[in-house]
Automatic annotation (TrEMBL):
Pfam families in the cross-refs: NLPC_P60 (PF00877)
InterPro entries, per the entry: NLP_P60_dom, Papain-like_cys_pep_sf, PG_Endopeptidase_C40
Signal sequence extent: 1-32
PANTHER family recorded: NLP_P60 DOMAIN-CONTAINING PROTEIN-RELATED, PEPTIDOGLYCAN DL-ENDOPEPTIDASE CWLO
Annotated stretches, region: Disordered: 217-245
Domain of life according to the entry: Bacteria
Gly residues biased stretches: 227-244
Residue runs in coiled coils: 45-93
Keywords: Coiled coil, Hydrolase, Protease, Signal, Thiol protease
Name recorded for this polypeptide: NlpC/P60 family protein
UniProt source species: Streptomyces vulcanius
NlpC/P60 domain: residues covered: 246-362
Length: 362
């Protein structure tokens, strides 16, 4: 074997080996690249449920802010319309008084100077005529003074109404801005929650539904109000101490129960959809006892009662910020509009942290 030829073959093989190694380093390892991480893959069902609850909770808080701003804006628009009507009437009155002041001034001018008229009374040939003219002049002067004072008062009122209307307009714009901000937040939170739910695998969705059932069952044992441990009542069923709903309360419960199956829509007050306070306010309005629109104003403005004395038709207010409400129907159950993606339904009254109970119609 030729030594030079062998050495050349060795160098050739070494070059090929070096080239192969370089290709391998450039290409990277031969195994497949990992796929995009599953957003729910490393989370337990309990964590997913907690995340969804937090998102829908934040959406509900924003819904209360939206409803508050919406109600405030509606009142401000009504007030502003009334102010503008009053402003127009006052402006017309000022114009009329201006014309009247001109007429009074012209009448005084025609009546002449009061001092000169007095001399005519003493020295003139026609004292009766002079007396009549003096009387007209004095009356015209008094009218002019009265008109001037009334005109000044009207102008002050016009200025006050103008300032009030301007302030009301600023407040209306602020309420509309608050409403738009809350709307944007609601839609963002709901979209995020829906994205998570849409990304669940079938098995995860089944586990989540099962977890919700188990938590609802556990909530029944936490109920410490009337009928604790009792069965679910109907719309006019038992309440505190087995009492039956009657009168307006029975009508309110009947209305709310008739809405079961209708979708939750934030900001809605019926008749085809509701949010939580939209349902309770519509129910009591149908019973002839209108109550405030939002759960927070229902908590603030409706008579409070103890949990132990809760009766069908009473409203149970939830969370420390009073941002959810349901109607007690007896048997430790409520009827309520729960959250986006759900429909009006019944649920254990202790399913959420209870703030207190209010009783409309008293």
């Amino acid at each position: 074997m030729n030594v030079s030829t062998g050495a050349g073959r060795l160098r050739s093989r070494a070059s090929l080996a070096t080239l192969a190694l370089a290709i391998a380093l450039i290409s990277g390892p031969s195994y497949a690249a990992p796929s995009e991480p599953d957003p729910q893959g490393d989370q337990s069902i309990e964590n997913i449920r907690g995340e969804l609850d937090d998102l829908y909770r934040e959406a509900e808080v924003a819904t209360e802010a939206y409803n508050t701003a919406d109600e405030k804006a509606a009142k401000q628009e009504k007030r502003l319309t009334s102010l503008r009507e009053g402003l127009a009437r006052t402006e017309s009155r000022v114009d009329d008084l201006h014309d009247l002041a001109g007429a009074a001034a012209r009448t005084q001018y025609r009546g002449g100077n009061l001092a000169a008229t007095g001399i005519e009374l003493l020295l003139g040939d026609h004292p009766d005529q002079a007396l009549n003219e003096a009387s007209q002049a004095r009356q015209a002067l008094r009218s002019l003074v009265n008109v001037s004072e009334t005109q000044q008062t009207a102008r002050m009122e016009l200025s006050r109404q103008t300032d009030t209307a301007a302030k009301q307009l600023r407040e209306l714009k602020s309420s509309r801005a608050d409403k738009a901000e809350a709307k944007q937040k609601i839609e963002g939170k709901i979209a995020e929650a829906e994205r998570i739910e849409a990304g669940l695998e079938k098995e995860q969705a089944l586990k989540l539904a099962q977890l919700e059932k188990e938590e609802a069952q556990a909530a029944k044992s936490r109920w410490t109000g009337p009928d604790a441990g009792g069965g679910t009542s109907t719309g006019t069923g038992s309440g505190g101490g087995g009492a039956k709903a009657s009168g307006a309360a029975a009508q309110a419960v009947g209305f709310a129960m008739a809405q079961i199956g209708k979708p939750y829509v934030w900001g809605a007050v019926g008749p085809s959809s509701y949010d939580c306070s939209g349902l309770t306010s519509a129910a009591w309005a149908a019973a002839g006892h209108p109550i405030p629109r939002t759960s927070q104003t229902q908590w603030q403005g409706v008579t409070r009662v103890t949990l132990a004395s809760a009766q069908p038709g009473d409203l149970i207010i939830y969370y420390s910020d009073a941002t959810h409400v349901g109607m007690y129907i007896g048997g430790g159950q409520i009827v309520h509009a729960p959250r986006p993606g759900r429909t009006v339904t019944t649920a254990p009254a202790a399913e959420m942290p209870i703030l207190g109970v209010v009783r409309p119609g008293v």
